[in-house]
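subagent[fold] <- orchestrator: predict structure for attached chain, return tokens only, no commentary.
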Amino acid sequence: MINKKYIIHRKSKRIYVGQVPIGGGSPITVQSMTNTCTTDIPITINQIKSLEVAGADIVRISVPNMDAVEAFKLIKKQVNIPLIADIHFDYRIALKVAEYGADCLRINPGNIGNEKRIRNVIDCAKYHNIPIRIGVNFGSLEKDIRKKYIKPTSKALVESAMRHVDYLDRFNFDQFKVSVKASNVSIAVEAYRLLAKQIDQPLHIGITEAGGIRNGTVKSAIGIGILLSEGIGDTIRVSLAAHPVEEIKIGYDILSALNIRSRGVNFIACPTCSRQEFDVIGTVNELEKRLNDISTPLDVSIIGCVVNGPGEAAISTIGLTGGYKKSSIYEDGLRGKEKIDNNDIINQLEIRIRNKALKFDQNICSKIDCVKK
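subagent[fold] -> orchestrator:
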């Protein structure tokens, strides 16, 4: 496992999306985007709240037209999480959502219009004291850059990004972050590496249009994981053709795998073999469903036999080592006196994990109360 102590994070300027800090040594944030019709206000609000429950720090919402602008105004009043307004083509939408309380404006300069319109958006962001995300994708690059490079390259993405960074610099606006996404992992990674050397603004990283949940997770884990391990990236989004809540879960899985930030139960489980004394796969799958609501970071090892079980249990919050008919249970590395009947492993583990999470949360609350006093 990569230890965050050995990751030298790229130094970047700190900006704020609502009350959430981005860059400047602040925790790497996880965000997603609603996939509902924005004008369907109740459904959009419900999805935003489900993303917040899943652990999202920020939510982006598409605002494609003026009807969506008016919906955004009502949605913003009914949610607590910071909202980024995603705007394409019509700069007037950016001006209006800023007035309605957007916490950040995401624009793709390649399709927002001429320099005058871009300046209008910048002036509006200044007035309302909100940041901008410059979002560059090869699919919507400026015509001259597409003509110059013909096919997707990292240099094309960076050239487009720097063109618009120069706009912001020229107008004395430094409250922005940048993304240079591609669906090709290698191109995206190289683009971020190049960009990271040229600016000190926060970088929003991800693999755009990564695909379905299986293929997209693999691409995102590789691309985002490489960049984070090199200290590049201040906020992430896993872009999947799946429910947005899955993006948040997988985002945290990536951060947890790099020992950067954890949320919920981290299951350590063997791939199983003929040595297993109980159904490991079924146990893990069922517990993942049952414990989906737990946000407390816990390491739980579920190993089917005594070959690797004791070793993994010794470094887990809760560990289970398979045995004949009954299995050994560990807590904080210590083996308990009693064993669990293999026919009741799921229920017994759920009880213990929930109790551990509750105790952990209570300890945190007690420490916070002591600090306040």
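orchestrator: received. Logging for downstream: The mean pLDDT is 93. The first strand starts at residue 15 and ends at 17.
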